[in-house]
Amino acid sequence: MGGEEASRALRGWCLATLLLAALAFLANALLGPLNQDEGWYLLAARHVMAGDFPHRDFFFTQGPVMPLVYALFGWLWSPFGVLGGRLFTAVLGFAAIVVAGGAAASCLRREDERWTARLALWVFLGLSLWFTYFTCIPKAYALCALGLAVALRLIDGGRAWRPAVAGAILALLAGTRLSMGILLPVVGVWLLAHRDWAGRTAWVWFGVGGVAGLAFVFGPWLVLCPDSFFEAQAFHAARAPMGVLGVMGCLARAVRFNPVLTVACVLLAWLALTGKPSMRIPPRETAPLPRLWLLCAVALGAVHLLAPVPYDDYLVPALVPLAMVAAVAFARLPFDSLRTAFAKALVPAALAVSVCGSPLAEAWVSMGQDRFWPRLKAEPDLFRLRRAAAEARAAADRLGTDVIWTQDAYLAVEAGLDVPRGLEMGPFSKPSALNPAATPLAAWSGYTYALHFPDLTPAPDRAERLAALRAAYGRTLAEFPDFGQGHTTLILAERTSP
User: How far is CA 244 from the centre of its chain?
Assistant: First the structure.
């Protein structure tokens, strides 16, 4: 098969893969389990839409960029509640894999190799239910993934403005998740070490863009509210550390949830180190960029694994540059006459492994197992949230209030209600905000009063606090079993005591 014919066939498979990826994003938006974080991220964006600012007006544990971006597009997603936030986030996540595929292809000269690189990357990330889920729910990962893909695409040895913009984007990512800031020194030093390829002043322009971006993102908050800003950034460091076992668990879950990318990386490493000369990955052709991408992946992975509690989803941004490296390496493997056959085999196999072998696919319909019996969901988590939100909205209208006391922030977002000042962070709110306010309506679940601030260990006085809450809100309006993250019981109640 000629190069042009192979490229046409690969383009068809790439289009099919993107359509499958779009379906994965949509399925996760509709069926994906609820996550407490998406509630307080969206609630923060709504507060910014109303004129508040994170850190100055309400406690917020991340940088200010994500609430500002989501507030800018609030007219688009906010009328549709949590689903609107998920669909908007999914657009960002989908754009991230498209841009990352283009960045991987830009390192190659031959057209069929470029399409092979795009196909491989879109399979590695777009057909990973784990990646599409965490870049679909409203957390910071989709925005970070898109910004990182764009920044790495701009670093291509071109005009001086490109590294300057890349530096500014990476600074904005540091204002989205502070841990993303590690990329600024990594990329800056790499540009300095590769001046002959990138340009003598590329590292200077990158530094100018980075400093300007940091000043724009952090300057106002360091001037207006430095104490609350630093308190928020120190929140994560105050958590009780999990140690080596936490790191091992994080890596084990990331490998299990991304089997196709894991196998690809292991295979490529094996070929590079032990393969015969005819089977080794050819050396770089146009640019040393894959080495930079690998450095970025390692740096992001190391920073997030060193967190006191290294959740596996912390590694989501690191998968973007890692998949870019793997995609380029796959495209350079010496199987010119097999590229179309490779595509035909890769897409169905990856789809079967990613979907059928992913615990997330099971989580769409199941809540785990009770002894011998699977606990099947009567309806998707999002649908149950919408039913509970409709009840809360109706009760609020009857009581003449637009505020609900709850630590389940996604319930307030879905119902179009606000929470009392101080509860914007849901279950991670400060203890001073946890006493029931003089609001006529409240809702609580298994997450209410569950955490001790700031180390987030189990709260020792939870039973007493819940008893006081039930006494204050003595009239139960509705109960929703198997609700939200963790599938606990949500109780909606009206205040009966002053």
Answer: 24
The verdict on residue 461 lying in a domain is yes
Whether 53 is covered by a domain: the verdict is: no
Q: Which conformational region is residue 253 in: left (phi greater than 0), alpha (psi within -120 to 50 degrees), or beta? A: alpha
Do residues 266 and 298 both lie within one domain?
yes
The residue type of 34 is L
**Do 399 and 330 lie in a common domain?**
no
Whole-angstrom Cα distance, residue 401 to residue 115? 56
- What does DSSP say about strands 373-376 and 405-406: parallel, antiparallel, or unpaired? unpaired
Q: What angle do CA 258, 260, 263 make, to 5 degrees?
A: 105
Query: Number of structural domains, the chain?
Result: 2
pLDDT digits 0-9 by tens, 138-168:
999 999 999 999 999 998 766 778 999 999 9
The answer to the question of residue 228 being in a domain is yes
Q: Confirm if 236 and 307 have CB atoms less than 8 A apart.
A: yes
Task: Tell me the per-residue pLDDT of 12-60, one tens digit each, with 9 for 90 and over.
Answer: 888 988 999 999 999 999 999 999 999 999 999 999 999 998 888 888 8
Within a domain: residue 369?
A: no
**What pLDDT was estimated at residue 283?**
47
Q: What angle do CA 498, 419, 475 make, to 5 degrees?
A: 40
436 vs 490: CA distance, rounded Å:
16
Query: Of 279, 383, 379, 256, which Cα lies nearest the Cα of 338?
Result: 279
Residue 482 belongs to domain spanning:
381-494
Q: Is the pLDDT of residue 337 over 70?
A: no
- Complete DSSP assignment for 103-163: HHHTT--SHHHHHHHHHHHIIIIIT-HHHHHHTTSSSSHHHHHHHHHHHHHH-SS--THHH
**Residues 196-226: tens digit of each pLDDT:** 888 888 899 999 999 999 999 999 888 888 8
H or E, element range at 479: strand 475-483
Within 10 angstroms of residue 371's Cβ, the number of other Cβ atoms is 4
